[in-house]
Design a protein that fits this description.
Strand order of the largest sheet: 1-3-2
Number of helices: 5
Number of strands: 3
Radius of gyration: 17 Å
Shape: elongated
Order of helices and strands: HHEHHEEH
């Protein structure tokens, strides 16, 4: 069997691709913006703020959690979400590294 597409790229390229894929949805950006402005956040608050159905919000939260960008803490029957600041800093470093190595060689 041949190699998978991800095997021909380095770790940083694959990680950035996964991050960009998760962040490519405007609803997820809106959710991140909302959570980042709160000290803690409950899923129903996100539903009220964003205006999407609860199952849709839950799916977006699952995608954000899949790259460890947010963390959820169970409080009774509710889950409070917050930004994972360590992962946020790592993503910032990856993006800065990517953009800072780009040459301005445009025509």
């Amino acid at each position: 069997m041949g190699i998978t597409k991800t095997q021909i790229f380095n770790t940083e390229q694959n990680e950035l691709a996964v991050i960009f894929k998760v962040l490519s949805n405007p609803a997820r950006i809106a959710i991140l913006q909302y959570i980042s402005q709160q000290s803690a956040c409950i899923c129903n608050d996100i539903v009220d703020e964003i205006g999407l159905a609860q199952p849709t919000i839950s799916q977006h939260l699952k995608e954000l959690k899949s790259i460890d960008l947010i963390r959820g803490e169970i409080e009774g029957k509710k889950v409070c979400y917050c930004i994972n600041l360590e992962k946020w800093a790592l993503i910032q470093d990856l993006l800065n590294s990517f953009f800072n190595t780009t040459k301005s060689n445009c025509c």
